[in-house]
Amino acid sequence: MAPTVLITGASQGIGKATALLFARQGYDLILAARHAEALEEVALEIQQLGRSALSIPTDVKEPEQVKDLVQKALNYYGAVDVLVNNAGIYVSGPVEEFSLKDWHDTIDLNFWGYIHTIQELLPHFLERGRGTIVNLSSIGGKVPLPYVTPYCASKFAVTGLTKSLQAELCPKGIHVCGIYPNLIKSGFMERAIFRGHDAEDAQARRDQLNTILKVPVVEKPEDVAKAIWDGVAHKKTEVVVGSANIGATVNKVFPGLMQWFFRQSQKP
After folding, report:
1. CB 136 within 8 A of CB 85
2. What's the sign of the alpha-carbon dihedral 181, 186, 192, 195?
């Protein structure tokens, strides 16, 4: 029987690239995302690679939907070997301009969405005495950055969750890995939240990020997918992706420099 992987946010970007890579490595897939049509297109691509793919439209912010997702996955395949928590949202703007709804939308997806899937799958992993949990964090979950405060808060929470799970679950046979990319050229801009002192300021921040994403050194979803596969295949506790290594190193050697640079780049 082929190993199975459940991927959230699998309809595009990092999630889609990861699904295709795992299919090429011999895995069968459980694909979760909110958009059913895009999800089914990914499933068809995987089936063309000769692997099985079960697509289940799911909003991971909703625990009942996640419970249904995991139950359907276990009923269909009998077991899940790897969980990749990837669904997330990016936010940018002055902290005082974010509404409570913005905060909830960010943390409910980026952090609680991970907790919901882990809560449902962990009993299965513990019963089997094996399994892998991969959490997509960010360089913003290692380095505190201005003008992305709700995003950083959610990703620092993911980092803490990941490290605590590692400490507790490793002796029980469950591998937990954190992935730390920088900005990625993907479709995340479509659902990102931008706030500013006015509509013009918010649009300027969106345009600025679009410009940054055109820089050749910015990684692609496939780069993160390879990092996820590396973490799973070699049982790594964390993988810092590409240019994020520079940011992490600079922050260690010159604390505050990353924050200064980010403040300059984000000035309206």
Report:
1. yes
2. positive
Query: Residue type at 211?
Result: T
Helices (H), 78-184: 100-107, 113-128, 149-169
Please identify which residue in the block is written with the tokens 């005082």.
Answer: 96
Give the pLDDT band (50/70/90) at residue 252: low
Structure token pair of residue 243? 């240019």
Q: Single out the residue of 150, 69, 121 nearest to residue 158, CA to CA.
A: 150
Tokens of 231: 């973490």
Location of structure tokens 């699998």: 10
How many distinct structural domains can be found in the chain?
Answer: 1
Provide the 10 A C-beta neighbour count for residue 144: 16
151 among known catalytic residues: yes
Q: 110: which DSSP letter?
A: I
The CATH number of whichever domain residue 208 belongs to comes to 3.40.50.720
Query: How far apart, in whole angstroms, are the C-alpha atoms of residue 70 and residue 96?
Result: 38
Residue 240 identity (one-letter amino acid): V
Could you tell me which residue, 112 or 252, shows the higher pLDDT? 112
Structure tokens at 124: 């299965």
Query: Which residue out of 90, 114, 147, 151 is catalytically annotated?
Result: 151
Paired tokens of 34: 């909110």
Instruction: Find the domain containing 87 and state its range.
Output: 4-266
